[in-house]
Amino acid sequence: MIDKVGKLITKIFGSKSEKDIKSIQPLIEEIKSYSSSLEALSDDELTAKTEHFKQLIAEATNEVRNEIAELKGKLDHIEELQDADHRQLTDELEELENRELELIEETLDRIMTEAYAVLKDTCRRFIGKSWKVAGDAIEWNMIPYDVQLVGAIALHQGKVAEMKTGEGKTLVSIFPAYLNALAGKGVHVITVNNYLAKRDAEWNEPIFNFHGLKVDCIDRYEPNTEQRRQAYRADITYGTNNEFGFDYLRDNMVINPDQLVQKDHHYTIIDEVDSILIDEARTPLIISGPVPNDNKSDKYVEMKPRVESLVLAQKKLVANLVQEAQKHLDEGSDDDAGLALFRVQRGFPKNTRFKKMLQEPSIQKLIQRTEGFYLQDNAKNMPIVDEYLFYAVDQKMNSIEMTDKGREFITKKGEDTEFFVIPDLGEETSKIEAEFAVIESERIQQIEAKGEFSQEYKSKKLAEAKSELLQEREQKFSELHRLFAERGDRIHTVNQLLKAYTNFEREEEYIVQDGKVQIVDEHTGRVLSGRRYSDGLHQAIEAKEQVKVEASTQTYATITLQNYFRMYHKISGMTGTAETEEGEFNEIYALDVMVIPTNRSIAREDHQDLVFRTKREKYKAIIEKIQEFHTSGQPVLVGTTSVDVSESMSRMLKQAGIPHNVLNAKQHARESDIVKQAGQPGAVTVATNMAGRGTDIKLAPGVKEEEGLAILGTERHESRRIDLQLRGRAGRQGDPGFSQFYVSLEDKLMALFMSDRVAGVMDKLSFDEGDVITHPWITKSLERAQGKVEQNNFSIRKRQLEYDDVLNNQRNVVYARRKHALLGDQLRTDLLGMLESLTEEWVAEHVAMGDYQGLHSTLLRNLAVDVPFDEDEWRSMGEDELVDVIVRRALEVYKRKEDMVSKPLYEVMKRISETQADRRPDKVQVVFTDGSRRMRVVVGVDAALENEGKEVVRALERSAVLSVIDDKWMQHLRELDSVKEGIGLRSFAQKDPLLEYKKEAFEMFKQLIEMINREVISLIWKAVPEAQASPSTVQQAQQQKSSYDTQRMQTQHADSTGMGLQAPAAPSAVQGQGQPPMGPNVKRKPVEVDVEPGRNDLVTIQNMVTGVTESMKWKFAKKKVEQEGWVIVEQ
């Protein structure tokens, strides 16, 4: 009803796009008005216009840029700022940076029409010139039409321009790219594959070069190379979405500013924007590395035979149930038939005969009625359904659960009957506690009963008994937790294998290519090379398909495309199909959609859908129609919804003797060649609906006379946009064409929404086999069904984004701090914020307990700062005043330390520079220690000479922040992944999983920030050089190594759709330093540790004051090391 009202309003008042285009029309006329004056200019005079535009932008922003530079200089000297002034300056800096962007946009808007006119005249001057593009010589013959200029203006305004296939989107994009590149902040043009990225860069480069603008393509170069770094410094940079995203993640893993490749995220133009920002938006880009000591891969192979036998037994059981159901139906026993069919749905829903039965509306209703009966009263009767099966499949929850019957089936003879049962931790813990309470009571009674023992001896024996019992109890609990983890992991492995065998079909959800399981995108039909199903599912499928099972990985860095592109100051996009997704573009990305009219009217004939009863009848009709087109010499493109269907169509065409090409995930490498042949007379091309996207099918001579390209759709996709994309392959630039969809009642979309009604019509009209229904109301009904699915998919994507926004907000905070540390930009502001936050935490904690002496000790222990202590005076202060006193004192101590550390190195470097300039290194290494850790810091000599040695402390600050953030952030990601994987189970407790996830993630992040603050500030304030600087100790520093070995990482993705990056295991960070001196009186040096020990690792720690050493597990030692003045001496 709402849709009908909306259409009526649009019909009366016009659409938003029509109004936008009307408002743009005066600008088009203004662009055209420059034509005569520009044509009169020489080439040099025309290119001088570009420099003039740049000068206008520089003049408009000069004042605010100077203010920004001045503020950054102030923020670099926190010791000179008054209380909390740095916060005010930080806010002012943000306002100035936003003001600069506003001034740039205002200037670009002012010069846009003239700039577009300049580029239009440049296109005119290039007519007839030729150069090589993608290996072939092309001749430039394009001057933009008015409608293309409309699209160009829409892109500059930060909108999505919907332009039909063949309307020249590549030409349109050069206008906003040229205009926005004038600001000097870079323009990124995103394509869906690397062929298009390289092609478009080569195609448009001479036009941009004419105006002195540099063009490059990141996909030409390997990651982390100087060539790729320079590509980002070009005025206009082309590339694929995944490479831009991965470079962003890699940049947040480097430890040297020289290793950064990306610059600003200012303006981007996204080609095929619906594919990138909607279809691929939820799938994250992930950089990962191996999980230490992982053996889960072997477990999948080990469990595979058991699961395979279990699945086979279930399939036989389900086949018998289908026969039993049919028998009950024939006898008229609907209740028994319903139970049997419901069990089939719960046991193996992909049973072929069962799927055929589901085409009958009466069967669907019977199963729904049966399901409703067994789910009532909180599903108390569901065990009656499931206990008959070996395992139960819940398609809605995408879960599988083994029954007792299934566990008994896969448990081998001689194995523990509880082999596949997870112990109840609560119950078992209570048993252990009760058992040891009894034992403790008995031992106490035994000791107390010894009358001959003195009280002192009894007390000693009681203490020993309690200590022994504590150790035994700890061992019992350790064994319980080990058993819980072992069985939980085993059951998880079995469940993932069951999912692989039951829910995932080869050639539908994935293909096997080059010995690897490759996921196929359900929307595009492209291979998502490098992407892996999470939580061990991918490994289960690998075991099922008998290919190499890859090791488990842990996340180093991750971001979804949604959140990557939302970082840009301004986004725009082009596509042939965006109007149906306008709501999502607007709500998620704040992007309006403008539908650009075609330069010539579309001549393609779009016919009504043909509806058949069965798929067999449908495919027979399609083959006959293809034969008809092929014989007449008319090229035909057959669109399919999956790789499996395209392969099936190919087999049928071979049987019919019809030559053809297949373009799907398996033939992705041949895409450009197949698309070139698709417009030849009589050519037959079978393709997944979105294959060949971004390239036009151009008609060979004589084909237009044969009514152009024919499009045959083998099934309606759940998204109208995908169907429109398929239709759009024909009818470019006014060419003739034909399109029609063939549909059966067995198709997924029909089965969901319409099969019962259409089947009823067919029955009433006594349709014979092969008869077809075609009517506008069926086509409209299918489109309404697609709209319902689209709304549901949008809701799913939106909810997924809410989950990802939690991580994204945290990532923005952490990466901002990391960037400040890496560049030294605002780092000191961050450090002052950390110091204040940490001090506030300590003050609040100790003042609440009245423990002012403890506060003083905490400051000494963590900061090595002795604040003058007068308990009465401290008690008389408010918390804020006390925090200010402590922070001021800490900064004074830090300033003295900075001078103490800086001056000796400066004097040495100055002396070497004056007397032995040839020996002066570029960088030197200084080793700092805080008593428990050692850190090698690399110092730039030129910077140290320039700021009188203060660069030493700056380098310490950078290294400390980077090392702590990288270590803690990686741990945090791992823990967050664990929380997210199990959060869905909270719904069983009537809790909203999203709210639960947000709550837990917030608490975890708060703890993360507190840990980072504590470790960074403590390390920086306490750390001092191990040795005094002297000419003999100064030597050239080796290059610092990152926590992540980015050079050894291997990308496993292809084109725009790969999302995986894996790294081999890093070498051990702790190297042997020779045999240490031994003996009780030897004060051992702290061990250099880059990675924190595991919770249960045994370590030896030493008290730095008393010299006492103790050995214990790290989980007990950690508090002593961090808070009580102990250091690790062995691990």
How would you describe what is shown here?
With 1131 residues, the chain is α/β, with parallel strands linked by helices. 55% of the residues lie in helices and 13% in strands. α2 (16-33) packs across α5 (85-125), α12 crosses α19 and α30 (827-849) runs antiparallel to α33.
Detail the topology: elements first, then pairings.
Elements: H1 2-13, H2 16-33, H3 35-39, H4 43-75, H5 85-125, E1 130-133, E2 136-139, H6 146-156, E3 160-162, H7 169-181, E4 187-191, H8 194-210, E5 215-217, H9 226-232, E6 236-240, H10 241-251, E7 267-271, H11 273-279, E8 284-290, H12 296-331, H13 334-347, H14 352-357, H15 361-379, H16 382-386, E9 391-394, E10 399-402, H17 404-410, H18 425-448, H19 455-502, E11 510-513, E12 516-520, E13 527-528, H20 537-544, E14 553-560, H21 561-565, E15 570-575, H22 582-589, E16 593-595, E17 603-606, E18 610-612, H23 615-632, E19 636-640, H24 643-655, E20 661-663, H25 671-677, E21 684-688, E22 709-713, H26 720-727, E23 736-744, H27 748-753, H28 755-764, H29 776-823, H30 827-849, H31 852-863, H32 871-876, H33 879-915, E24 923-929, E25 934-940, H34 941-946, H35 951-982, H36 993-1022, E26 1024-1025, E27 1050-1051, E28 1060-1062, E29 1098-1103, E30 1109-1113, H37 1114-1123, E31 1126-1130
Parallel strand pairs: 3-15, 3-16, 4-6, 4-7, 5-6, 7-15, 8-28, 17-23, 18-23, 19-21, 19-22, 20-21, 22-23
Antiparallel strand pairs: 1-2, 8-14, 9-10, 11-12, 12-13, 24-25, 24-26, 27-28, 29-30, 29-31
Helix pairs in contact: 2-5, 2-6, 4-5, 5-7, 6-7, 12-13, 12-19, 12-20, 13-15, 18-19, 19-20, 29-35, 29-36, 30-31, 30-33, 30-36, 35-36
